[in-house]
Amino acid sequence: MKYYKVTILKKGKKEDVLIKADSTDIALARAKEENNAYALKAKEVPPPFTEQVKGYIETIQKNLLKDKKVDVDELIIVTRQMSVMLNAGISINEVLEESRNFTKNKTMNKILTQALDGINAGRSIADSIKPYRHAVGNLTVSMIEFGEKTGNLDEALGMLSDTLENIRDNTQKFKKAMRYPIVTIIAIAIAFTVLIMFVVPKFKSIFETLGADLPLPTLILLGAEEFLSQYGVYLLGGIIATYMTMAYLHKNNLNFRRVFDRLSLKIYILGNIIYMVSVSRFILSFSKLIKAGIPITDALNSSTFIIDNVYIREKLETIESSIKTGINLTESFKDTELFENIVMQMVKTGEASGNLDEMLLRVSDFYKMKFDNIVDNISGLIEPILIFFIAGMVLLLALGIFLPMWDMGSAVRD
Questions:
Q1: What is the Cα Rg of the chain in Å?
Q2: For residue 57, is pLDDT > 60?
Q3: Residue 249 exposure: Cα atoms within 13 Å on the Cβ side
Q4: pLDDT in tens, 305-347
Q5: Domain covering 270-376, topology
């Protein structure tokens, strides 16, 4: 849709009106009809500033919300239910129909409808839901495809739901561990801001009457109060705009996401958790797929797809490329520089003995143990930093407010 500045003749006077239309002729006709006047000419103009801002916000929202994934809990329930029903001997058509009626998730309902239509049209479930790979994950498509090929779809779906549950549990455990430090930091920031905005101004007039040089802590408090009073709204707007911009770039710009994800691995504690979660999720999925009989290259492709961190995912993608060039799995793992020596020894043993799937499950348990250990102790690792930060804020407030008052009391006694 374009914007036109249309010149009209109304009651003997020329006026310019802004019309939104697809073409010049439509703009002239609309201006004539809406203003009950004669339209003289129309000229295309850029959209108004407010419309440009509105369009920019809508574009950001669209890109942030597109490709919405199915909630993992919903996916676990549906796949578990389908596995049980298939194992009970119910036909796949009835299973899909019942699952579609059961789920209240619109995206999941749409996917199951597509799968049911595909079955009725003679296509496989995997082929039918591939357009929704972004919503259910590559792991789901691969496991369903394998189950259909082997005739053990119920077992494949059961294994899929188990894997998804393990991934979900790790994610929830991480979120639960991070909740305390995040809430604490937010509470400290709000409390400090309130003190600066409402307590410091009460002492400001007293400090100004001293007529002497104020100590550094007091100057810092007064400077912070003045800055927040004058630019606080702009600061808040800048934080929101920065967050939205970074979220947009992280979603749509691969180079930005690659740099951001690489830097996130260097953050204290958080970087180790992201690494553990990513590698553990990869190994767990890879081992399950190998155990199910899926070829190594296909298993690698599906397992790397579920990794959120682009930097780690691209490292893991080199394993598949290396294997296709003739390099064995152990050396391919080693070339990524993501795995420890003990892991390499376990993979090498599994590859040599032919029990790769079992050995990979042990590797998965190894990383899960390390992940659980760091998450269980995250409070103890972060608390000293939080205590130091809180102590610094309290000390700054105490010194900033009371030092001038002590100086004033000394001057009165003298």
A1: 31
A2: no
A3: 13
A4: 778 888 998 898 898 888 888 888 888 888 888 888 888 888 8
A5: Receptor-associated Protein (1.20.81)
For residue 16, the cross-strand partners are 7
- H helices present in 121-269, as ranges: 125-129, 133-136, 138-150, 153-194, 200-210, 216-252, 254-264
DSSP conformational letter for 12:
T
Please state whether the predicted TM-score (pTM) of the whole model is above 0.90.
Answer: no
- Per-residue confidence at 66, pLDDT binned at 50, 70, 90? very low
Residues 17, 29: Cα–Cα separation, whole Å: 13
Q: Write the DSSP assignment of 68-121 as a string of letters.
A: PPPPHHHHHHHHHHHHHHHHTT--HHHHHHHHHHH---HHHHHHHHHHHHHHHT
Count of other CB atoms within 10 angstroms of residue 391: 10
Instruction: Take residue 217 and report the two structure tokens written for it.
Output: 């802590």
Q: Tell me the pLDDT band of 50, cut-offs 50, 70 and 90.
A: low
Short-list 11, 83, 103, 3, CA closest to 43: 3
**Euclidean distance between the first and the last CA atom of the chain, given in angstroms as a whole number:** 78
Tokens encoding 380: 């103890």
Q: For the chain, what percentages of helix, strand and coil (3-state, to nearest 5) are there? A: 80, 5, 15
Q: Where do the CATH 1.20.81.30 domains begin and end in the chain? A: 72-166, 270-376
Quick one: which H or E segment has residue 20? strand 13-21
What CATH superfamily is the domain 72-166?
Type II secretion system (T2SS), domain F (1.20.81.30)
Whole-number Å distance between alpha carbons of 364 and 288: 10
For the chain, residues classed under CATH 3.10.20 are: 2-46
